[in-house]
From TrEMBL:
Entry protein name: Aminopeptidase
Organism: Pseudidiomarina salinarum
Family annotation (InterPro entries): PDZ_sf (IPR036034), Peptidase_M4/M1_CTD_sf (IPR027268), Peptidase_M61 (IPR024191), Peptidase_M61_catalytic (IPR007963), Peptidase_M61_N (IPR040756)
Gene Ontology MF terms in the entry: aminopeptidase activity
Peptidase M61 catalytic domain ranges (all copies): 269-385
Keyword Calcium carried by entry: no
Pfam name, any one: Peptidase_M61_N
Domain Peptidase M61 N-terminal: 3-173
Top-level lineage group: Bacteria
Keywords: Aminopeptidase, Hydrolase, Protease
Length: 591
């Protein structure tokens, strides 16, 4: 038996105290480890670096602990039960690790609970205490409860270590709004200072959940579900779990009472919720065979993240449209944003989406100023591949089969059974089950950097995709631009009163040809100062191919360079419904 106890012991020092009782330690001594990463976020994070002051005891006596490596401890052999005590420093305000202060606490058990080697398959119990605060705290988690009142402290159970670390916990003065979707209990739980209309939000969430439950034909891999939400001034993130999701959002993302229209911020929050909820099927149960089981001590590679993140990204906004939360024009603008983002990066010509998946650990999760020149996002391009798949399936099955239909059947075959998927499973499944041939399309889409057949497919569904000039180097997307500046710098920049700080310099374009690099700060063009205030006025003076003198700082060194302006490129991707009768149920033009 394994029993963990977690106490938020020092809110000001951001410390959780943890104890672990091991009733049957291995005869040659217990080995303890903490994961290096958390499923769903493919980066080595070395959670053990936050463990402080680890001690062990047996029979009332201290037991010798030897540190083995960055995340492993070896306890001396003993015959009786062993108890381990340690603290964990928790001040990472993200959904991936742990956080604690006097206002709220959040943790993943992968940051707090040591795994006992050889006992990962055993069930365990976890007692969680709440701190002694002036206004009482509550706690919310999807972990099955053994004792204690709903949202109070108590004892929880998990069937294995992998299950234990899939139940994040949120604590504090929580705002809780429960709702029913698909006949199942759901809850929106919010920690942090917020002004959101939780009644309205949970109503919108109920529609999203209901739609997805219907899409999977009421085969639901959980009995209840929680949206555990941390609200901050500025933040964004989500991590999927088996019967909950941990979300981080900005205060302005939660719609205010009395507001009717769904603005971009709130739409983004609903998309995030829709995305993480869809993952309950697509990665939490249907998953790459390489992830069965997870091995959390080091990187675990797969070429399939494009499928799990791409298809999920496709459905997140698509479900919003199908629920009537966003109209067809808004939906198409979001698709245009994604196409523009993928096609703007020269990295899309240099990395395949399967390689992007494989190198998630070192490239996608460790992006730098050169990433747009060297990598493609498996989320964004994966989402566009999913769009193509949906349209191809509809077209080639005479509108009988959709990507939604396939996901339901595929989930039953490879997810509900626990089989897991291999690189080629999807194409062969679709061909066998529906006689739709996808192999040739997928071969090109996944293993080459050839452009996707977006124009052709969208056009067959009555939608025209046009390449249009963007307003400036910074604003590209799916929205038609007005007031374009006449020249292009070929760099993304952040304008401030101090100048233009270059964030990305695109290969082969004006800024790079002139010798400018990311992080350079342009302070003057033709010896006149350029700032946030004057940038448009300055750029408006010039014509493509004209040469100017640029002064910029690189670190503390002043550069004087000759720059020849580029012609503005058609970087926007604008989608318009031209022949609504051809949409055939893919989109609803009346919404
Ligand atoms: Zn995701």
């Amino acid at each position: 038996m394994l029993h963990y106890s977690i106490t938020p012991s020092d809110l000001h020092a951001h410390l959780f105290s943890v104890s672990l009782e091991i009733s049957e330690p291995a005869s040659d001594g217990v080995q303890l480890t903490l994961p290096a990463w958390i499923p769903g976020s493919y980066m080595i994070r070395d959670f053990a670096r936050n463990v402080v002051d680890l001690r062990a005891e047996a029979n009332g006596q201290p037991l010798k602990v030897t540190s083995v490596d960055k995340q492993t401890w070896q306890l001396a052999a003993t015959d009786g039960p062993v108890t381990v005590h340690y603290q964990v420093y928790a001040f990472d305000l993200s959904v991936r690790s742990a956080y604690l202060d006097q206002y709220f606490g959040f943790f993943n058990n992968s940051s707090l609970c040591l795994a006992v080697q050889g006992q990962a398959d055993r069930s365990c119990t976890l007692a969680i205490s709440l701190p002694d605060t002036e206004t009482p705290w509550q706690l919310a988690t999807g972990m099955p409860r053994q004792s204690g009142d709903q949202f109070g402290s108590g004892v929880f159970t998990a069937g294995s270590y992998e299950e234990l670390i899939d139940y994040p916990v949120l604590m504090g003065q929580l705002a809780i709004q429960e709702f029913i979707a698909g006949g199942l209990k759901h809850g929106l739980v919010v920690a942090g200072h917020h002004y959101g209309d939780l009644g309205r939000i949970s109503g919108d969430l109920a529609q999203i959940c209901e739609y997805q439950i219907d899409l999977f034909d009421h085969q639901v891999p959980f009995e209840s579900y929680l949206f555990l939400t941390i609200v901050v001034g500025k933040g964004f993130g989500g991590l999927e779990h088996r019967n909950s999701t941990a979300l981080l959002c900005s205060r302005k993302d939660l719609i205010l009472p009395g507001k009717q229209t769904i603005d971009n911020d709130y739409r983004g929050f609903l998309s995030l919720c829709s995305h993480e909820y869809f993952h309950s099927w697509n990665i939490k149960t249907l998953k790459p065979r390489e992830f069965i089981p997870y091995r959390l001590a080091a990187e675990q590679y797969t070429r399939q993240l494009w499928f799990y993140e791409g298809i999920t990204s496709y459905f997140d906004d698509y479900v919003l449209h199908q629920c009537g939360l966003i109209d067809a024009a808004t939906y198409l603008q979001l698709v245009g944003d994604t196409i523009a983002r993928v096609q703007r990066s020269t990295g899309a010509n240099r990395q395949t989406v399967t390689d992007s998946s494989l190198y998630a650990w070192t490239k996608f999760y460790k992006q730098d100023e050169n990433s747009p020149n060297s990598i493609v996002s498996y989320y964004a391009k994966g989402g566009l591949i999913a769009l193509c798949l949906d349209l191809l399936l509809r077209r080639d099955s005479d509108h009988q089969v959709t990507l939604g239909t396939v996901m339901r059947d595929y989930w039953l075959e490879y997810g509900a059974t626990g089989k897991g998927t291999e690189d080629e499973s999807f194409a062969s499944f679709v061909e066998q089950k529906y006689s739709v041939k996808l192999a040739a399309f997928l071969e090109r889409a996944l293993y080459s950097t050839d452009p996707l057949p977006l124009n052709e497919l969208l056009s067959e569904f009555g939608v025209e995709l046009s390449h249009e000039v963007a307003a400036d180097d910074n604003t590209i997307g799916g929205k038609p631009a007005s007031n374009n500046i006449p020249v292009a710098l070929g760099a993304k920049y952040k304008a401030s009163p101090q100048g233009l700080e270059l964030q990305t310099v695109y290969n082969g374009e004006a800024a790079e040809r002139a010798g400018l690099s990311a992080q350079d700060r342009i302070i003057a063009i033709d010896r006149l100062q350029v700032t946030e205030q004057s940038v448009k006025e300055v750029f408006d003076r010039y014509q493509p191919d004209q040469q100017v003198t640029v002064h910029a700082f690189r670190r503390d060194e002043l550069l004087s360079l000759k720059l020849v302006w580029d012609k503005p490129r058609a970087n926007n991707r604008v989608l318009r419904v031209k022949r609504p009768e051809q949409l055939k149920g893919w989109l609803n033009p009346k919404r």
